[in-house]
Amino acid sequence: FLYKKYILVFALNKNPLIDASATKISELFGLPIIRVSFSMKDMFKKNHIYMPAVGYLLSYIDNAEFILTDSFHGTAFSINFEKQVFVVYPEHHNTRLKSILQITECLHRVLTPDDIDIANIRPIDYIKVNETILKERKRSFEFLERACQSEVL
Fold it and tell me: How many CA within 13 A on the CB side of residue 119?
């Protein structure tokens, strides 16, 4: 894509809230919408990326101004790349998504049909988020180190 700035929609499920939110952000900031798609129906649609390879997907996330997603991995990579991500919970399998947003104190980035006033959602404080991620990584490494040293068979 030739866009320097864009909104990336990385949705695993069809959801009108994601579409409406992407349109609202597009209108607010004058940015085009790029969509990652896993449906062959979208293969030749303008501004759709059909089944990108992992490296390309990460590049699209890294270079987006905003990301709208219902995906745990879309959220995790957006946070790692310090992006302004908006999340819509999928109908099923949203436990990990809720957990990562809670741990990083980003629950305010969850969109619901009742509050899609995007302009008033505060930005993510990545200084605080990165401190939390470092603490959680350290805790995880310590757990793995203890687990690997135990003689449990």
Answer: 6
